[in-house]
Amino acid sequence: MGVDDVGFACAQDYQSPKSYEITKLLPEAKSIIVLAFKPLSSCESPSMSAAQNGYLDLGSFARSASYRISRFLERNYKAKIATMPIAYPFEIHNDRKALADFSQRHAAVAAGLGSFGRHNLVIHPQFGTRVIFTSIITNLTLQPSPKCEDFCTQCNLCVENCPARALDEAGKTDIRKCLGHSQPYGLIADITFQLQQLGRSPEEQKQMLMDEQYARLRQAAHLGNQYMCFNCLKSCPIGLA
């Protein structure tokens, strides 16, 4: 399947303070299976397009592996399953802003696949922060994995290397600052561009549509979840040896 690591958690051990209760996602939930995938080295390329392509490939691969495992469990064990995406899609409500329905990070920690670092990412015992997770919620009763120790050394390199200053407050990521810098062609940038077109002359609007900013916005809208900064991940020294 290509899964690099796997962990198991009891449904009640999943404690994400801002996400939905797990029973909203699967009323019969008893266990969570968390799959870990290590990115290829291309994901740390100095070329943002190469790094993006690496993560897009990994995301597709991880979704496929999660789905194949879920089909196996349903067919062979008559299990009920809810697969949780890496990021999108999620319900969108004004009061929840950009919060996902399910936290892969909290699921990974509950399943013994790592601990939280100062950057609020999960540090895997072998891969460090260079890892992504997908989760499968099921009604099967599975033996939970032992929890991990705290791997963060509090070196503060992630904080010092965050160009958006989104990690200044311990235990919190300023989402607005983070997304504003790491997703410069995301939804907020798209809305800003559209608003700038209002009141412009037809010739000015045409020039805006020929601008490279518009092309980047369209590309991001097609690809989805396009990050342009990985400093917090790349600056973490754990797992590099």
Automatic annotation (TrEMBL):
Residues 142-172 form the 4Fe-4S ferredoxin-type domain. Keywords: Iron, Iron-sulfur, Metal-binding. It comes from the Bacteria. One of its GO terms (molecular function) is iron-sulfur cluster binding. InterPro entries: 4Fe4S_Fe-S-bd (IPR017896), 4Fe4S_Fe_S_CS (IPR017900). This is 4Fe-4S ferredoxin iron-sulfur binding domain-containing protein. It comes from uncultured Sporomusa sp. The lineage of its organism: Bacteria, Bacillati, Bacillota, Negativicutes, Selenomonadales.
